Amino acid sequence: MSEEIQGWRDIIQQNGKRVQPQLTISKSIADELDDIFNEFVRIKNSRSIWGLLWRAEEIDDETRMRLEWLLPDENKVNIAVAYLAGKALGVDLVKVVEVIDDNY
Hints:
Blueprint: H1 3-12, E1 13-14, E2 17-18, E3 23-26, H2 27-44, H3 49-54, H4 56-59, H5 61-70, H6 74-89, E4 94-97
Parallel strand pairs: 3-4
Antiparallel strand pairs: 1-2
Helix pairs in contact: 2-5
């Protein structure tokens, strides 16, 4: 494990206990983000979350439209970035739940 990833894990832990994620995302949205991100990695050979969100139209219009539907406002974009970043770092920054309210 790289020192950078271990550093992030250390930051996320407090007093020897893992901090539980405070943000939530529905499982259906998380699954859709995973599919889009995995497709992006396959096509662009890149794991850049920034690149995915800002270059989705370079993949195809369908991917761009799926992201626009999933992430209609800045708060949802931010939660999606935290979710994908946590997955990339191997930590749970966003809790995936079966069903949540309209706030995501």
